[in-house]
């Protein structure tokens, strides 16, 4: 099985970090994977996106053109990538920041007010991981088990306190119901 | 008793320089400094592009031929790889002050622990006498046939003054080789520039005001006179920067 | 081999270079290879190595020349516009028969171009690049693992043949992370080479590292001698990957990231019943000419897939002596073809009747 994931939003929302978490989750599970960021000036506040491919076989193209899973954290990203999702694909929308619903009827949307949840629950700036938590609940390419090790491998050793808040954010997303 | 012999640090190769050219004197002063300091076995020289391009055949130490202007960068690589060796460049004015200005300034500002011998004869010799960055205002050359017009060709670069304005370099001096007195002083200062490297002081550059009778269109004797009359007034001799002295001054 | 870790391609090159015994790095900032320099800046001071941010690409490559002349492992890295600046120094290094590693993490061009991935420096890398008669050994990684493995190989081949090596990567592979298993570290290679400038120690005749030969007979002889070595490299060092070629009627030729994309397309084409395979040159110079010539004996057509206006396609045609149709699938300027675009070209090549 191969799962192609595209995460998109503004620079500074932790788009690449969310992707790194999923990549490390895959690594710990012994899967084949690739993680590819957009790079350049957009890292400084423009749009950022990140392709993650998790597979049981060696990864061919690391560029996700047609995602199975799309995570969007701003409206331009939904506008840009909705049409690219494979039929039957899943779209995760930060509904605090994106006012419109997913238009395509052949996709399964999930709306999570991640930015608001992050603010209300004392994990500001971790809307990205709330979104990922919801993905872990709704998709079966990986499980919720083992998230602690995966977070540990992405948070900086200089900031061990980030471990708990990331886990809290993941849990918030995982438990969120409409 | 031997009263005159070739320095050990020069090979048996016959020099190709024109009659009256002062490269020969400067080669000899460099070789004498290497001999005097007993460093011929660990010296590595970098030759330029210009009249001294074949300096690698004349110095008996290991030599590398650099691209035009790049000798300080090449010397940087050698010195970083072999910090115990004594590394020097030998460059002309076009090489050091025109095409290689960036490499020169940055090696100086890094205080790269190398010794730079800079031969300023105010002309491109090897290519047949074109205007150099150090050609004097009004100087007639192949590419300034009506004399260097500072309005269109700009002013000469005063390398010693320019580099001594930097915090980096350890030692900047200007000497000349147009008479016995000046040659004796040049010898001392060139040796000092090598000693500085051995002592770990850093970037040491000696600008040597030099003659090019062939491309100046003068007899060798007239060329030496011209150095006194025209070159030295524009390029005053002396030690422009000396961290050793500055260090002593601040210790007091 | 250690356990697998996630690394960016650019970082994998840096770590692999250190493990291959390289202790000298000179560079100048440019996107998209910055992680490599940053990694070196962090690591080199801790292992007694040199990291120096030079004043220009030109200075950096000449510093490389200086270290290479002393016989030690040395490298620089840059991206397309910066590698253009390095060409002068590369020509001198090649002309002086010195080993070193130059990394080009390509971006779109010409001119300042863009910063997105490209393969449009293929000509520059494989045909010499600077002035004069010379070649580089050019290796084209297509994964983060190969970024590491080919870095070590590039140093070894450069040392073996006294030829500068180039790792020709692109922004995608430089920036992406994949699991990578790094080779155990080797001791720095400090063996005194019998041509290196290290100081005569008063014990031998002076060594001269030089590319100037004013006597044309000597320069010609030198170039012939160098090309005899190139012939050895062409004989011994061709590397490539062959994928689904056993019964292939059509052959995709692609390197680096384009080969990764093409693989997806080949797999998709096979599902449609199209007998397609992929030959991925790992060495771009020496180019796997014979491999393609042999393939031409049983395939009906070739498709060159490149992130350029079409550069390698010329070598494909030369390799098979234009004996088969050679099509081109190209994107340029930082744009990347999708597997579907490659698949469409495969269908067209196969006659369109299966589309």
Please explain how this structure is put together.
The complex is a heterotrimer of chains A (178), B (252) and C (355). Chain A has one domain: Pyruvate-ferredoxin oxidoreductase, PFOR, domain III (Pyruvate-ferredoxin Oxidoreductase, domain 3, 3-Layer(aba) Sandwich). In chain A, helix 3 packs across helix 4. The two termini of chain A are 29 Å apart. The mean pLDDT of chain A is 94. Helices cover 35% and strands 21% of the residues of chain A. By secondary structure, chain A is α/β, with parallel strands linked by helices. In chain B, strands 2-1-3-4-6-5-7 form a 7-stranded mixed sheet, with helices on both faces. Chain B is α/β, with parallel strands linked by helices and 252 residues long. Chain B has one domain: Thiamin diphosphate (ThDP)-binding fold, Pyr/PP domains (Rossmann fold, 3-Layer(aba) Sandwich). Chain B contains 11 helices and 7 strands. Chain C folds into 2 domains: 208 residues, Thiamin diphosphate (ThDP)-binding fold, Pyr/PP domains (Rossmann fold, 3-Layer(aba) Sandwich), CATH 3.40.50.970; 109 residues, Rossmann fold (3-Layer(aba) Sandwich), CATH 3.40.50.920. The longest helix of chain C has 21 residues. Chain C is globular. The N and C termini of chain C lie far apart (45 Å). At the B-C interface, strand 1, strand 2, helix 3 and helix 5 of B face helix 3, helix 4 and strand 9 of C.
User: Which two chains have the most extensive interface, and how many residues on each?
Assistant: B-C, 36 and 39 residues
User: Biggest sheet of chain C: strands, sense, closure?
Assistant: 7 strands, mixed
Helix fraction of chain C by DSSP (H/I, runs of at least 4):
40-55%
Strand order of the largest sheet of chain A: 2-3-1-4-5-6
CATH class of chain A: Alpha Beta
Shape of chain A: globular
Order of helices and strands of chain A: EHEEEHEEHHHH
- Tally of extended strands of chain C? 15
Determine Rg of chain A (CA atoms, Å): 15 Å
Largest sheet data of chain A: 6 strands, mixed
- What is the N-to-C order of secondary-structure elements of chain C (H for helix, E for strand)? EHEHEHEHEHEHEHEEHEEHEEHEHEH
Overall average residue pLDDT of chain A: 94
Question: How does the overall form of chain C come out from the CA principal axes?
Answer: globular
Compute the number of structural domains of chain A: 1
Q: What is the tally of helical segments of chain A? A: 6
CA distance, first residue to last residue of chain A: 29 Å
